[in-house]
Amino acid sequence: MNVAFSWNLVADFQQMWSFPFMVNAFRAGAVVAVVAGAIGWFMVLRRQSFAGHTLGVVAFPGASFATLAGISTGFGYFGFCLAAALVIALLRREGRDAGAEESAATGVVQAFLLACGFLFIALYKGLLSGPEAILFGSFLGITTGQVLQLALVGAAVLAVLAVIGRPLLFASVDPQVAAARGVPVRGLSIAFLLLLGAATAEAAQITGSLLVFALLVLPAATAQVLTARPGLSLLLTLLLGFGTTWAGLVAAWYWPYPLGFFVTTFAFGGYLLAHALVQVAARTSLRRAVA
Amino acid sequence: MTVDQVVGLETPAPTPVLELRGAAVRVGGRTLWSGVDLAVRAGEFVAVLGPNGVGKSTLIKVLLGILPAAEGEARVLGLRPGQGGDRVGYLPQRRSFGTGLRIRGTDLVRLGLEGDRWGVPLPGGRRRKEQTRRIDEVVELVGAGGYAHRPIGECSGGEQQRLLIAQALVRRPSVLLLDEPLDSLDLPNQSAVAALIGRICHQEGVAVVMVAHDVNPILHHLDRVVYIAEGAAVAGTPEEVITSETLTRLYRTPVEVLRTSDGRLVVVGQPEA
Predict the structure, then answer these.
(1) Closest by Cβ to B115, choosing from A163, A166, A224
(2) Domain tally, chain A
(3) Is residue A43 assigned to a domain?
(4) How far is it between the farthest Cα atoms of chain A?
(5) Does A170 touch chain B (CB under 8 A)?
(6) Across the interface, do A166 and B114 touch by the CB < 8 Å criterion?
(7) Which of A71, A104, B50, B198 is most buried, by the most CB atoms less than 10 A from its CB?
(8) Residue A219 domain-assigned?
C-alpha cells in the first residue's frame, strides 16, 4: 500500500476513507471543530479564555477517572467538564471586579482537578492508551458510537446557542444595558459556561486536554482579527476550525507526527498570517490616503 | 366656576413623564436621601447634581426600577418604574470598550434595538431592512456616520459616547436616563455631547434626566436641576438652585456660588460628602 501524500486530494481522501476509523476521525473532527469554533467565538469575545483553558485541563482527570473506574471515557469527559463549569459559574460574581475574582476561583478549580487527574493516573497502573493521548489528543480508534455521541451533544450545544446567541452577545459586550433591557445576564453567564464545558469536553477528545485551545481560541481569534462584523466573523471561525482540523488529520495520516501538533500549528500559522494580512492592508490603505 | 378652573381648562398643564413624590431611598440600611420631589415633562432637560457618593446614580436606579423607593412614590410614564419597557432609554455610567473588542459601532446600536430577542435573526427580511434603516437614522442623528462602521474599541472616548447615545435612542424612547455621560471626555467633546443631548431633548421631545458632576458644560441647555446634598434635595431652574442662599441652606454650612467672566458657575466651600 502506498502511504505517501500526493497532491491529488481526491485520491488521498479515497485512500484515507477506505479505513473506517479514518472516516470516523474526519466525522468527529468536523463536529468538534464546528462546535468548539462557535462556542470559542463567544469565549474570546467574553474574555473567558482562562475558564476555557481550565475546562480543557479538567478533561484530563475526567478521562483518567473514567479509565480507572472502567466506564466510557465520554462520561468522564462530559461529567467532569460540565461539573467544573457549574462550579466556576457558581463561584463567579457579576460586577466590576468579576474578571479578577473569576480567574482566582478558576485557578483554584484547575489546580485541584489537575492534581486529581494525576492521582487517577497513579492509581491506574496500566498503560492502556496512557496519559499522553488524554493530554495531547489522538484520532485512532474513534468508534461510530463515539461519533454519534459527539454529534448529538454538538447538535444540542449549537441549538441552545442559536436560541440564546443574540442576548448572549448583548450581555457579553454590554452587560449593564442588557440587564436594564431585561436580558437575564447572570443566567446567560451560567448557561454559557455549561455550553463551554460541553464544547471543551468534545474538543478534548480530539486535540487532547492541553491543546483544546487550538480549536477553542485560535479560529475565533483569527477570525476576529480579520473582521469586526459579528456574522461574518462567526462564519469564518467555523470554516477556519473545520479547515485546520481536516488539514491536521490529513497531515497526521501521512507524516509520523501527532495530530495535536499539526492542528495547533496550522491554526497558529493561520493566526500569524491573518495579522500579517491586516498589517499589509493597513499600510497600503495608509499609503493610498497619503498619496 | 372659579378662576383657577378656567385657567386650568385653557392651559392644561402637560402631565409629567417622570415623577418623584416625597421619595426616599435606602441602600444597605442607610438612607441616602429623603423627601425628594421631582416632576419632569416631555422635552425637558433636567440635571441631577451634587457631590460624590450622595446618591445621584441611585436616583437613576430608582427611576429604572432597579432599586425601590423606600418611601414616597415614583412614577415613570404614569407607570411603576421598570414597567416602561422600550420607552425608557438608559446610558449607564462610563463604560469604555477595550481596543480588543472586535464589534462595530453599528453592531452595538443594533444590540440596543434587538439584542434582547431570542433566536436567530433572519437575514434579508423586511423587518431587518427597517431595523437597518432605523440604525442608520439614529447614527446620523448623533453625527456618528463617519466612524460607526469601525470597531468600537478603535473609536475615541467622544465617538464611543455618541454611539452609546445612539444605542440608548434607537428605540425612540420618551425618557432618556443618562449617568455621567460627560465623565472622562475632554472639554470640547463635553460641550459637543452636551449640545447633542440638548438638541435631542428639545427637538425630539424626549425627557432627559442626566447625572452630572459639573454643571457648566450643560448649563445653557438645562431646563431644571435637582441638587442633592446632605440627604435632601432642592429642585428648580439653575438660576434658582445654584445660588449661594439655596446651597447654603441645603448644605447647612456657608457655600458660595461664583460666576466667572465667561458665565461658568463655581461652587466654593462645599464639603465633599
Answers:
(1) A166
(2) 1
(3) yes
(4) 70
(5) yes
(6) yes
(7) B50
(8) yes
| Among A residues 219-238, those touching chain B with beta carbons less than 8 Å apart | 224-225, 227-231, 233
pLDDT in tens, chain A (291 residues): 457 888 888 999 999 999 999 999 999 999 999 999 999 999 999 989 899 999 999 999 999 899 889 888 889 999 999 999 999 888 876 655 556 667 788 888 889 998 998 888 888 876 555 677 777 777 788 889 989 999 999 999 999 999 999 999 999 998 888 988 889 999 999 999 999 999 999 998 888 888 888 899 999 999 999 999 999 999 999 999 999 999 999 999 999 888 888 999 999 999 999 999 999 998 888 777 666
Return the residue in B63, B111, B154 with the most chain A beta carbons within 10 A, the one to mutate for interface testing.
B111
Within a domain: residue A120? yes
Q: What is the CATH number of the domain that holds A184?
A: 1.10.3470.10
In degrees and rounded to multiples of 5, residue A255 shows phi and psi of -120, 150
Give chain A positions within 8 Å (CB) of B114: 166
Q: Which alpha helices (H) appear in B2-123, and where do they start and end?
A: 3-10, 56-64, 105-114
Nearest one of B91, B26, B153, B144 to A45, comparing CA atoms = B153
Residue A42 CA to residue A196 CA, distance in Å, equals 9
Does any domain span residue A89?
Answer: yes
Structural domain of residue A268, as residue ranges?
Answer: 9-290
**8 Å CB contact between A250 and A25:** no
Tell whether B108 is within 8 A of chain A (Cβ): yes
Q: Which of B177, B144, B149, B173 is nearest to B161 (CA)?
A: B144
Look at A183 and B115 and tell me if their CB atoms are within 8 Å.
Answer: yes
